[in-house]
Amino acid sequence: MQNFTTAASVILPSAGLQPGDIAVIAVYFVFILAVGIWAMCRTDRSNVSGFFLAGRNITWFPVGASLFSSNIGSGHFVGLAGTGAAAGIAVGAFEWNAMLTLYFLGWIFAPIYIAAGVVTMPEYLSKRFGGQRIQVYLSVLSLLLYIFTKISADLFAGAIFIQEALGWNLYLAMFILLAITALYTVTGGLAAVIYTDTAQTFIMLAGAFVMMILSFIRVGGYSELQVKYMQAIPSIRPNNSNCGIPRADSFNVLRDPIKGDPWPGLHFRALHILATWYWCTDHEVIVQRTLAAKNLSHAKGGCVAAGLMKILPMYMMVMVGMISRVVFTDAVACATPAECTKYCGTPVGCSNVAYPKLVLEVMPTGLRGLLLAVMMAALMSSLTSVFNSASTLFTCDLWQKIRKNASERELMLVGRIFILFMVAVSIAWVPIVQVSANGQLFDYIQSITSYLGPPIMVVFVMGIFWPRLNEPGAFWSLMGGLAVGLTRMIMDFVYSSPLCGQDEYRPEILYKVHYLYFAMILATITAIVAVVVSLLTPAIPKEKLVRLTWYTRHSVEPRMEMDQLNGANEQEPQSDEPVTYDKLDAHPEEKHTWYRRAFDLFCGLDKSQQGTAETVRPTFFSIEEKPVPRNIVNFMGLLMLCTMTFLFGYYA
């Protein structure tokens, strides 16, 4: 840890902030807190729908902005720029692929989730298959993934900026950021998160756009970048090796399927496996935003808005990282363990410092503070999303299993307390972040999710499109996929990648089977297990699949629920029409002491008394759309897909 701190001080010697920078940061914090308080006062936070789904009354642009900012964290600024500096533009394809997957979310998955009336993704699987073990397994796995990938990556990336720019103790910096983040997440719920995400999206885009313009001016434009990047070779590198030399295909998105970043693995994996898992099925942070939309058309519009914003990271992050390599070649592209340790404290490479180094050493006073505020916005936006979604998972999928008759007030308190627990875990995880942040951050995140995500995606997709899939098939396919994925992940940790110039010593399965190809293999194994086990066990009756599959999403028939304890059928409350977003029950107010009322008002508990959570859970929601909004979002969705196709063709 001492080496990390000392080395970091070496790589960013001019990171001190001027009064103008500090003023910009202060204005940013005041602005974000004001937005959070405004959202807190504007929205009913007294029930599950109001706190966890913002009352399901959010319009398309806040949905899209929140989708984008929740996805783009400080880990993306550092990770995408770092991989761009090390390997070129191909990593930007991950961002463009999201346009198709967001189309899947808005047009295929969101209608199912809305019609089913679910709050979380594990809850959907519980309704679809019955039983508790799948729902509990996915909830616990999601919470662990938040810690091992999302929180750890974002905290490490944010620490690079905060510790060096402000000179604060690392724990003090993390504690202050997490405390402010938790404050408006605990008090405001998803409404505060979405509205602050919207405000922070503007901050991120504005700051990153200024950074991009100044960076391209510094290097002389895109054509000059193409020339100078290929010449950005460090002055000290091993003899008779390719270490430190830019790849010949650095400006190609589609590369050799065997020797390069495999484009079949990138597209089939990114489009049909992990991207679908991330955007459409397992990632509560993302799907929760679409469920908060006021209707299906607004959910689709939010997906289109987020998809079009995903064009920007290639230029604002990936290419800016490549420019940083041109400007600071010896530091960013270091090729020997000694040089890398000198510049950033890790012998495997310093590409992760590409973006922060360019910000802190190139940007003028004021703009430097703006970009630091952008990093804080990205970090806090991601953390608010994680904390709110983790709270939703724990409260709705785990706590209600323990306390089946929990009052509305109890659920609200448990959700807020669990957010504070996640804050504590995040701070405790900082030492792990420091010692495990070797290599390219973005590749680390993608490899971990390649080992754990495919089985979840397969179960969701098959559950929606293949009614014959049953609970034993889903559960044992998840268990089989988890066993195979964990085996590969453990082997990756045991056999670390050799340094540049060293001989390969790992088993062939690790270095000859790219993690993108492994994701495809893992998905195939999971699907085979699901089919075989399902066909060998009884099918689920059709009346229990109403509004839970693609073919029954428009049905208004009552659904026979599968009791989660003993398998008995329990008929859903019948209604003559679908429940709309504003027909949630309220509870009569009770009189309390003034300090009890003040506490309840601050935490949004003033209206949530002793009624159980079931009184605010609707039977189902309508997914019907008015013709004009439907046609507009359909056209914009098609335009988004055409844009994605053009970009891949142009940069192929």
TrEMBL record:
Entry keyword set: Membrane, Transmembrane, Transmembrane helix
Gene3D superfamilies, sorted: Sodium/glucose cotransporter
Membrane topology label: Multi-pass membrane protein
Claim: Transcription is one of the keywords in the record: no
UniProt xrefs under NCBIfam families: sss
Family per record: Belongs to the sodium:solute symporter (SSF) (TC 2.A.21) family.
Protein name per Swiss-Prot or TrEMBL: Uncharacterized protein
